[in-house]
Design goal:
Four Helix Bundle (Hemerythrin (Met), subunit A), elongated, mainly alpha, single chain, 4 helices, 137 residues
Amino acid sequence: MKTKSLINSVLGVGAFLLLGSFAPTIFAQSGTQEQATPPAASQQAPSAHEPGEGRFAGLNLTPDQTEQIKKIHESAKAKADAVMANTSLSDADKQAKVKHIRHVARRQTHRVLTPEQRQQLKANHSERRAQRSQSQS
């Protein structure tokens, strides 16, 4: 009698766990077909660092410069993403490669700028650095 009771208990718990693992997917699927807009996670977020904003603010970039800088940054991001997805690399190797990619992208970006724009960028950087050090004090 005890064995039969134990088997029934084990089977009951197993059935409960099995049902519990499928319940979220069943309920999740029933509400998704009536959704008019996709979830926020699948929508592409606007870029936080558009050329001409942030560190390039006040440089009066031409449309051509803006496009070139955007391509440089997109290429660097794609390369960095590929490095981070490479499971054969150690974390230290990944960091070193991404650092190099960013360095190359920064050099390419500086080549797009005029000497006056480079000087303004350097001044903006120094100003931001000073503001940061004051706010941390």
